[in-house]
Amino acid sequence: MEVMDIIKEGVNIGGNAIAGGIFGVIGAVFTGFLEYLTRKQKLEEKRLDHEHRMQMQDKEIEMYKLTREAADDEHEHELEIAASAASAAGMTLAYKDQMTAGKSYRWVEAVKTLFRPAVTLLLIAGTFYTLYSIVTCRAWVNVLSGSTVSAIAVTIVESNVFLAATAVGWWFGDRGMKHTKGGVR
Question: How many structural domains compose the chain?
């Protein structure tokens, strides 16, 4: 193999590493955009829920006003106390419901947390193992011609480098965006 061929292959591999990193960052940006849309939808749901609660509260106030007009002062105080107690009990139940929503088992959270780092490490290890195998294994030369072995090796290396760079770019790009949102989740 000539020096120019080696330089050409090195540039090819470097280009794949850069393209994989860019692809990973694009994936992280896309993930952030989807998270933004999800948060926006949840905020809209909360706004609508709040609006509904306010309308219900207005109706209750109208009902209490009508009731108050017919009752004496003592009865009026009893109704206000009952309304406050009922409202507090309803709000407590609503908050308790919201606090328990979205929780899952600890082992599920652990698997979700460890999945991306494991895939990233496996891709990086696979890349280095492939490079090592190609450099040290001369058995292929006996079976295939030199140019065929070279073409296969270059394709495998370029693919592994692209995948590893994509995984690393996505992993760190996504973590970087989570830090800028006010802390790690």
Answer: 1
